[in-house]
């Protein structure tokens, strides 16, 4: 589908430059109505610049951004009908929680009761029922981001743009809030573009993930597709694989791919410990460096010579290796 029939967001050959820096180059991406797409990439790869260009905060130097087939060049930020949410929720400190959420409502002419009902429904949606009269300064970081989300959703934006919305929170909170964000976006049928450098977060939130590297999108797919077949070693590493050479092939090892076995790749145990609740051993394998193996039986002693086996359910042979 191309041109006027395309619904949702269509980014075509987008380019953003700052002086001699090319932050975004030749990016094509479609986000269908109701879909959540994450742009995942390391710091400095250009993902914020892409998001800001979609928002209208940054001008494209080439290419186009369209919504439902209509070109957005020249349409100012506040006329695009898009919502924005950033790492720091940028709440108004002098307003209480309800006042912050109400600010997002585009129903100035609605009765006070109707507005209050909508604010209450939004607070309920983000798990903050009853928090309306709390000063925002009294909230935890996670609660503040929930308020920011409620405020961003209040005007029912046709597209929600989220730039690292959970990055300021600790890992545990990030994981639970990421899952909740997905629930909220799905429940409200919100179309969203979500920028993050954290692959777990991208996989938890998005229907599809667009991996970005050095200003370009290098692979786009569902979390399962990306995990099953990363295009190259760089993408694999970025998704959390360990990439090694094994029997003439380049192999991406997932976190659960190595186990101790009577036969296999030889290595020396350096240390043992626990990772995500499972016993593990750090094993030094010549040519690979230190890798982590998941243990089932007794923990070996440091210095022990062991063999490792690859569980191919959790490992991938890479083809287009760079
Ligand atoms: N206003 C600006 N002026 C000049 N260069 C900029 C500007 N904003 C971003 N850049 C540069 O553009 C490139 C992409 O930056 P961008 O912030 O889009 O990346 P990012 O992937 O979002 O990184 P981060 O996660 O660290 O914010 C970087 O090299 C950055 O230094």
UniProtKB/TrEMBL annotation:
UniProt protein name: ABC-type quaternary amine transporter
Could you tell me one molecular function GO term of this UniProt entry?
Answer: ATP binding
Which SUPFAM superfamilies does the record cross-reference, listed alphabetically? P-loop containing nucleoside triphosphate hydrolases
E.C. number, please? Answer: 7.6.2.9
ABC transporter domain boundaries: 6-239
Q: Which InterPro entries match?
A: AAA+_ATPase (IPR003593), ABC_SmlMolc_Importer (IPR050093), ABC_transporter-like_ATP-bd (IPR003439), ABC_transporter-like_CS (IPR017871), P-loop_NTPase (IPR027417)
PROSITE patterns, per this entry?
ABC_TRANSPORTER_1, ABC_TRANSPORTER_2
- One Pfam annotation reads ABC_tran
* Keywords associated with the record: ATP-binding, Nucleotide-binding, Transport
Q: Please tell me which top-level EC class this enzyme sits in.
A: translocase
